[in-house]
Amino acid sequence: MHVDVHSQKEVTRMSKIAFPPCLFATALLIVLHADPAAAQTRVFVSTAGSDSNPCTVASPCRTFAHAYTTVAANGEIDVLTPGGYGGLTITHGISIQGHGFAGISVASGGTGITINATSSDAINLNGLLLDGGDVGNFGILFNSGKSLTVENCVARNMSIIGLAFCSTATTAQTLAVSNSYFSDNGQDGINIETDDVGAITASVDRTGLYGNGRDGLIVYGNSTGAATVAVTDSVASGNVTYGFIVQANPGNSGSNLSLTSSLAEGNATGVEAHGGSNAALWLAQSTVTGSSAHGFVADAGGVINSYGDNYIDTSNGTNTGSLTSVGKQ
Amino acid sequence: MAATNAEIDVLTPGGYGALSISKGISIQGHGFAGISVSNNGTGIGITAPSTDSVSLNGLLIDGGGGGGTGILFNSGKSLTVENCVVRNMTGNGLILLSEAEATQTVAVSNSYFSDTTGNGIEIETFGSAGTVTASIDRTVFSGNGTGLEVQASLVTSSVPVSVAVTDSIAANNGTGFSVLSNTSIANLSLTHALIEGNGSGIHASGTNATAWVAQSTFTGNTLAFSIDTNGVVNSYGDNYVTSGGGSSGTTPVSKQSARR
């Protein structure tokens, strides 16, 4: 009886918009306000539920989109049974607890979870399985908000990007990703990009970035806002172009990617810092191996700082540029 | 009603309400046992005898921006927190206020403390006897006032407190890790941690407050180290400080060789 429900309006609109991803989504304004008088702080969804239910644990709803309309700002959507719950656009603080078994099948040209929240809103996503079936565009697309936490999630098989964190706001925004997997996406596993003056600070730990069509993880200073991203205990393997790359356009106020205790394996290029004088990669206790083209590339003004304790073996292709030695403290 | 030192096992995802614990117990929530904390309330309050161990596993404790405290440990022998999420509190995510005149231990593993106005975790000692030790591993503190605060009470006499953190992250907090004391010894050891995007990465304040830092990465903090009032940060010289004032104010210390 129950079919994974997506907003067809949303899908249609998004399918018309071309890359780059971080700019087109600003046009997307879907507002689903909860009624404060009726809002509950925790609501429930189940494969046995119905969107005509009140979303209580005894009478759960069927879709994330409907549950969201009944939950209070800063409340929680809790998943009761394994299954698919459809896409969602988020405009206020929320926690979604999917327990590792809450699926979202992203429709062709669509986005699993879109976040257009205010600068005071914290968003927490835990235990979601987002699959694009090679036709869905984005798993998670963050355009604005205070912070996004992604824990224990999988985003794979998108035609464009697994997690696109795009600061189109003028305020500072933060991202924390932990114990998650971004694989087999058409372009990037994770794209962290500043598109205005708002700065981004992001941490990524225990995360796998596998087999993406372009980059495992890209940090892109596309506007003036600074990007500071730190990755620990994570793996980028088998990505078609780059394992980890930090890139800055002229005028960007600083894009830094710190890799500690991480692995780049079997990518075309393992790690790269590219462009401007403000793109810097900081490499510590990390391994780069099996790169088909280049182990590391520092070019067009990009800098790779090495703490001298990395493992970059001869199985990689040639390297471009040089490593800049920096001291531990 | 469960027997002392027995187990409460959660069968299905859902919300199970707040709880006061006064005896040894294990709660196995499997990652899907929710507790919505009411405004200014407490999710789990623990006031157990000094012989009792409390284990919490797989709980989702959410304050919705109004709940006061996620987990409040006043007394008991030990508290273990594994695979839990505690977030969106107005006070503290997890707070140990040791007023018992006994030795107490805390172990936190693979858990998340985020978006809380006060501290993600606060370990604070009072009283005049006993000690408190805590280990924290694979735990993320993000978007809190302070990620982790270790304090030998600044306002009254207190017992020693020692907290060790490994493989953990403090990101985008007002202060990442804080160790405070002007009474008993307060030690905070950080190994292989990531401290990123905080106002202050590590704050050590007060005589007898010491942080020990090894193999840890500091980036994007306004200030990597904030040291005042005779506090000390000892560095093993193998940390990665990419920005935020460098290692200014830290004290070099040596690693110990396993064999000579």
Description:
The complex is a heterodimer of chains A (329) and B (260). Chain A has 3 helices and 30 strands. Chain A is mainly beta and 329 residues long. Chain A folds into 2 domains: 1-137, no CATH class; 187-329. In chain A, the strands form 2 sheets. Chain A has a 20-stranded parallel beta sheet that branches. Chain A starts with 7 loop residues before the first helix and ends with a strand. With 260 residues, chain B is an all-beta fold. Chain B has one domain (26-252). Helices cover 0% and strands 56% of the residues of chain B. Chain B contains no helices and 28 strands. Chain B has strands spanning 6-9, 14-15, 19-21, 25-36, 42-47, 53-62, 69-75, 78-82, 85-87, 92-98, 104-109, 112-114, 119-125, 132-137, 140-142, 146-152, 161-166, 169-171, 175-181, 186-191, 194-196, 200-205, 209-214, 217-219, 223-228, 232-235, 240-241, 251-252. In chain B, the strands form 2 sheets. Chain B has a 19-stranded parallel beta sheet that branches. The interface between A and B is large, with 49 and 46 residues.
What key attributes describe this structure?
heterodimer; A: 329 residues; ten-stranded parallel β-sheet; B: 260 residues; 19-stranded parallel β-sheet; nine-stranded parallel β-sheet
Number of strands of chain B: 28
Shape of chain B: globular
Summed up, the helix count of chain A is 3
Write down the secondary-structure element order of chain B: EEEEEEEEEEEEEEEEEEEEEEEEEEEE
> How much of the sequence of chain A is in beta strands?
over 45%
Mean pLDDT rating of chain A: 89
Shape descriptor of chain A = elongated
Helix content of chain A: under 10%
Using only CA atoms, what is the Rg of chain B? Answer: 18 Å
Largest sheet of chain A: 20 strands, parallel
Helix content of chain B: under 10%
- Poorly predicted regions of chain A: 1-19, 24-37
Give the strand tally of chain A: 30
How many domain units of chain B?
1
The helix count of chain B comes to 0
Largest sheet of chain B: 19 strands, parallel
Summing up helix and strand content along with how strands pair, one would put the structural category of chain B as mainly beta
**How many discrete structural domains of chain A?**
2
Mean pLDDT of chain B: 92
